[in-house]
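job 3f2a | input accepted
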Amino acid sequence: MSHFLDQLKTMTVVVADTGDINSIEKFKPRDATTNPSLITLAAAMPAYQPLIDGALLYARKEAAGDASRIVGLAIDRCAIEFGLKILEIVPGRVSTEVDARLSFDTAGTIAKAREIIGQYAASGVGKDRILIKIASTWEGLRAAEVLEREGIHCNLTLLFGMHQAVACAEAKVTLISPFVGRILDWHKKATGRDSFPAPEDPGVVSVTKIYNYYKRHGHKTEVMGASFRNAGEITELAGCDLLTISPQLLGELESTQGTLPRKLDPDGARGMDIPRIDMTEAAFRRMHEEDRMANDKLAEGIEGFSKALVTLEGKMADRLARLS
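job 3f2a | predicted structure (324 res):
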């Protein structure tokens, strides 16, 4: 009898949710995804100091004396360097995130995404192996729509509500990352409950509804469940297009023996009676205001990723001073 991780890989694309190269080598996912928090954690490991220093030296050469600009360029370069290392291991794609502080800036997001793609291209990596991570704001969606028309594939992150999912599908984005665990966190706090049975987990229920809606209406956008709190959430979403999983939970799945049943199935979803939702900007903003959980968690997520960037900027500035 095989373990859960091997069985999961037969029905779902497994993605490593980490910036740690060693974990990616160990679990051999098809794709990998990072964010500023994960890169900050990886950057603190001694093994990655040469990579950090290389990014700073690259930026110092490009920015010529402007410390603030050097740090900004170095952070972008650092994300690219981690991405390049990851792409040496995984056969598929890596997600690289646009600065969360641009989440409500359509033009700024487009410009930053093009810069990221340009740096990968200069290193010999084509657009087909990169996903640009963008927050699922209305402004972020409009940026993604433009980028997708240019052949730049996008991963819409910080997604918590059906209105965000429908708008992403209509913008024809490549992939969405609904945050299962963060949805659970909100509902535990709101209800005072310590836990939910896995099939009733609000994050699991949300992703299941999105998956079924997409398959019922023929949307090509892929669904990648993210931000898991326990292995039960993952096994309840077996069959989802992709799941991005932390090294700790990958290890738990690898050590669990038994039979893993498929829970999400495109053929079953296509026969479901699910009404189509017409999404306009007015409908998106109204639904977002009415969905207190999505409203709270999107704002919290943007703030958290922005703070992670500020922390990383501080660490890079300190490192730059030591190098100088």
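job 3f2a | The domain at 4-33+96-119+130-304 is CATH 3.20.20.70 (TIM Barrel).
job 3f2a | closed
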